[in-house]
Specification:
The chain is α+β, with helices and mostly antiparallel strands and 315 residues long. The chain has two domains: 4-127 and 294-313, 2-Layer Sandwich (D-amino Acid Aminotransferase, Chain A, domain 1); 136-275, D-amino Acid Aminotransferase, Chain A, domain 2 (Alpha-Beta Barrel). It is built from seven helices and 18 strands. The strands form two sheets. Strands 1, 2, 3, 4, 5, 6, 7, 17 and 18 form a nine-stranded antiparallel sheet that branches. Strands 8, 9, 10, 11, 12, 13, 14, 15 and 16 form a nine-stranded mixed sheet that branches. A hairpin with a 5-residue loop joins strand 9 and strand 10 (188-191). The longest helix has 15 residues, at 52-66. The chain binds 4'-deoxy-4'-aminopyridoxal-5'-phosphate (PMP).
Length: 315
């Protein structure tokens, strides 16, 4: 299989994309990244990129928040991704990882001003990251979510994902599927790489932006869909763990996680361990939309079509 990546303004095969050992980002996790899905539709023989412009907006905000130089090719991210998919001729769903990192060859500087940055994009075939069909078991992590007063989680900085890795490792080691972070002051924050929602008395609730979360693009999508399609409002506020444990339904959202039902948190089963009705409805709607099967929400998609074996961008 071809495996092209985008690196230093060029498309090269992955075995040619190396960084120097003195690269600043390798030492200090100085950078930020995104995660975008390309959904393959075998009927239309197209790849649908989901909310790619919103991902670009978030990446640009990350550069601002962290005070890092924005590489000039970042502006062309959607076009570069289309070209990259074309070079790799994927006919499966893919996960696309754009990363901007401090590529300056120095590890003796902490002043981030005027350090050069590089955009790289790599891809991997991916159907589902979590068990969307049967749901997942969460473990309340003994690691707390990195506070935004130390590093802003909403910038999606590379270095902060050590926090994710520690929590995820702990959860997996103890037989769970994923970790649930609390904030430093004990409120519910998010999964290790997902936002969390719960349903109680026909109202959806999700931790607010002051709960040290990443403002997820899937989170925003779910809030909009629940209101427009199911007449369910979402309240964004501080959430106590005890509320989550007594919820009627709980689910995770994320580009990787999509909409994943939560059937257990620590020892407590949610909805008797059954996947809830609302979660099922939202999931069905979401999968239709991302695969280009719902015309109303085509505004969120960039269609990359195949023509005689070649793929090209439509519209
Ligand atoms: N929180 C964290 C920490 C994440 O890494 C992710 C994945 N990007 C999310 C939430 C979900 O965000 P999105 O829906 O934009 O993928």
């Amino acid at each position: 299989m071809k495996n092209f990546v985008y690196f230093n303004n060029k498309f090269v095969t992955k075995n040619k994309a190396y960084v120097n050992i003195d690269t600043h980002a390798l030492h200090y996790g100085t950078g930020f990244f995104g995660g975008i899905r390309g959904y393959w539709n075998a009927n239309t023989k197209s790849m649908f990129l989901f909310r790619v412009k919103d991902h670009l907006k978030r990446l640009k905000n990350s550069a601002k928040l962290l005070g890092l130089e924005q590489p000039s090719d970042l502006n062309n991210l959607p076009e570069i991704i289309v070209k990259l998919l074309k070079k790799n001729s994927y006919k499966t769903s893919v996960y696309i990882r754009p990363i901007v990192f401090v590529s300056e060859l120095t590890y003796l500087k902490f002043d981030l001003r005027n350090l050069s940055t590089t955009l790289a994009i790599t891809t991997v075939p991916l159907e589902h990251y979590l068990n969307v069909k049967n749901g997942v078991k969460l473990m309340v992590s003994s690691w707390r979510r990195q506070s935004s007063s130390a590093i802003p989680p909403r910038a999606k900085p590379t270095g902060i994902y050590l926090n994710t890795a520690l929590a995820n490792t702990e959860a997996k080691t103890k037989g769970f599927d994923e970790a649930l972070f609390l904030t430093q002051d004990g409120y519910v924050s998010e999964g290790s790489a997902e936002n969390i929602f719960f349903l109680k008395n026909n109202k959806l609730v999700t931790p607010d932006l002051d709960s040290d979360i990443l403002e997820g693009i899937t989170r925003r999508t779910v809030v909009e869909l629940a209101k427009a399609e199911l007449c369910i409002e979402t309240v964004e506020r501080k959430v106590k763990l005890s509320e989550l444990l007594c919820a009627d339904e709980v689910f995770l959202t994320g580009t990787g996680a999509e909409i994943t039902p939560v059937i257990q948190i620590d020892k407590k089963k949610i909805n008797k361990g059954e996947i809830g009705e609302l979660t099922t409805k939202l999931q069905k709607l979401y999968f239709e939309i991302v695969h280009g099967k719902n015309n109303k929400y085509k505004k969120w998609l960039t269609e990359v079509k195949t023509k005689g074996g070649e793929i090209y961008e439509k519209g």
